[in-house]
Structures
1.
Amino acid sequence: MNRLEGKVAVVFGCATGIGRATAEEFVRQGAMVYGSDIVAEPGEIGKSYQHSVVDATDESSVTGFVEGVIAAQGRIDICFNNVGAGLQKKVSETSLAEFDHLVRMNLRSVFLGTRAVLPHMLAQQRGSIVSTSSNGGLMGRPNDPVYNATKHGVVGLMKSVAVAHAAQGVRANTVNPGPIDTPMLRGILPEGASLEDPEMTRRIVASTPAARIASAMEVAHAVVFLASDESSFVNGVALAVDGAKAAGAMLADRYRLNFDLGVS
Ligand SMILES: NC(=O)c1ccc[n+]([C@@H]2O[C@H](COP(=O)([O-])OP(=O)(O)OC[C@H]3O[C@@H](n4cnc5c(N)ncnc54)[C@H](O)[C@@H]3O)[C@@H](O)[C@H]2O)c1
């Protein structure tokens, strides 16, 4: 229960889903957590938790938030960049506005959070940055190419920060989730579909060897590992938390099942 004892953490995007589970687990593991989201009132997350309204895609909003934490605590040990948005459209169907929106949500937000904490972590000569990519950041998928491109970008950014700053004590890694039961996943289901429908669930997990949808807390546990000193020599890694989805090739019929459903 004290794997993050004494650590100061900032989290971007923690009102629901993976970010919320992670903020809750950071608190349980002893961290002082400064969480942020566009949602103003996320409800009870934990005792050592302080919430701010921050648009993670907005430069001054992100910088102001990080500087506020530095003013209060004097340091930031952990930064979890988790904001993201999905788009289930083929390249030919995607407008430039949709492309720009996804780059903004998935890549610009990670860049801004990382750039805001980096000078402080470099001054401290320690710090762990964890950013949420996706199994789609590790392989091509048929139905959400722009999402996958941005999530590859997140991996590239973290690997590059890792090689640039490992000698200065800064670590930068990604978690790469598979299908996780969150509002985002429920939001991309086709009209009328529900995760409570076993046939729908069976089709979603058709691309996941573990054959199930995981909970947000299963991703949070991996983030805690990357954030903690237990992973002190783990740097520049893309950690799949995906029931082996990105580990191998899918059988053609499984791909086809997904094509029909329109969910990657
Ligand atoms: N759920 C999955 O199956 C899955 C799989 C792979 C990767 N991911 C990634 O996990 C991350 C979290 O997604 P989730 O599934 O928990 O979804 P979610 O919708 O539950 O959580 C996203 C959170 O980000 C907040 N947010 C949205 N825009 C914001 C902004 N501009 N600034 C600040 N906060 C903002 C939302 O209010 C919400 O609290 C995303 O980056 C997503 O791409 C999710």
Note: The first strand starts at residue 8 and ends at 12.
2.
Amino acid sequence: MQTSLAPYGYTDRIEQLYQSNFERPCPARVVRVDKNRVMLATTDGPLHVAFPRLDEQCATGDWVQLGTNSENEQVIAGVLERSSLLARKKAHDPLSGAQVLAANIDVVGVVVPVDRPISHNRLERTLVAAWDSGGTPLVILTKADLSNGNDDVVSQVIDQAAGVDVVTTSAELGDGLEELMPRVIPGQTLVLLGPSGAGKSTLINALAGRHLQDTGDVRVVDGRGKHTTTSRELIPLPNGAVLMDTPGVRGFALWESDAGMEAVFGDIEELFADCRFQDCRHGPEPDCAVQAALAAGRLEQRRWKSYLKLQRELARLDRQHDEVAKRQYGREWPKIVKAQAKARRQPSPPG
Ligand SMILES: Nc1nc2c(ncn2[C@@H]2O[C@H](COP(=O)(O)OP(=O)(O)OP(=O)(O)O)[C@@H](O)[C@H]2O)c(=O)[nH]1
Ligand SMILES: [Mg+2]
Ligand SMILES: [Zn+2]
């Protein structure tokens, strides 16, 4: 096997993927995407290339095929099929589509700092997106040394994580690192997601055992805080695992969700089967299982509201997709809708 890319997660599986797609594989992994150029890890070391003009754009973590253009410059000639993809809706632009945050990640670390009140809404959203990415979510509590012995925070998070493993760390004290490390085995990629100042870069430095990423005090200048990390970047660890540092995100607007909503809110969706009416809207209808659970305190008001809000957001997105497709396909649109509906009715192939 080609080993010089091993620190960036080049495994037998990736090698086979290249061999089945290209006659002459020329592998590289996207380490960072800047405004006009992309930094790659190649078999000959780091390489900067222009942002590719492909139908499909590349993201940090992508495996790409290198080629040359007519001027004999090295370029990205193709993007390999992704094993997982973390995306969110682009901010401030309702129709602009998805922003791909990271590709080919095995573990999605949802970083929750315990030095401030937990944002349940953010945690839920990030968990939904993590499930939908195809990676395995892992909740990482940070700054445990600043929690004032507040076990409440930890138990609240465990409660909300709905079966996702929770690891408590303090980069300051070096606590929890030996618990975290076995979660990312050699060849795997772990992305860290969380608010600015959560300690993502500090944790990466602690895991790497040296200062690789700049870290910074949390300064609230304009209510937006100050982001120390400004781009998503792959960082190889000595044990052969790969970490991805990301800039703190303020919000996490969902893109598409199916498995994610079910994983995080499955207990709520199960209740629907017990409502008297199949089309119950879970309001004033008689014998509504949701209202009964709320009244009995078996379902938290906050979680129910949060669920409804995310569903509305996803429904709005669906309508927007439809609008865009309508414009794109014009009169072909009704046919496409029918074909899609038919495809959905058909059982998916085994495997
Ligand atoms: N006490 C304590 N402070 C920590 C710990 N981890 C991080 N910090 C501090 O928290 C601040 C922010 O840490 P960063 O690692 O820069 O946070 P970040 O999540 O990378 O932030 P962005 O890059 O802006 O997204 C720094 O001043 C760190 O020294 C910890 O475990 N304990
Ligand atoms: Mg950072
Ligand atoms: Zn109901």
Note: Residues 142-143, 145-146, 170-172, 196-202, 215-218, 227-229, 247-248 surround guanosine-5'-triphosphate (ligand 1) (CB under 6 Å).
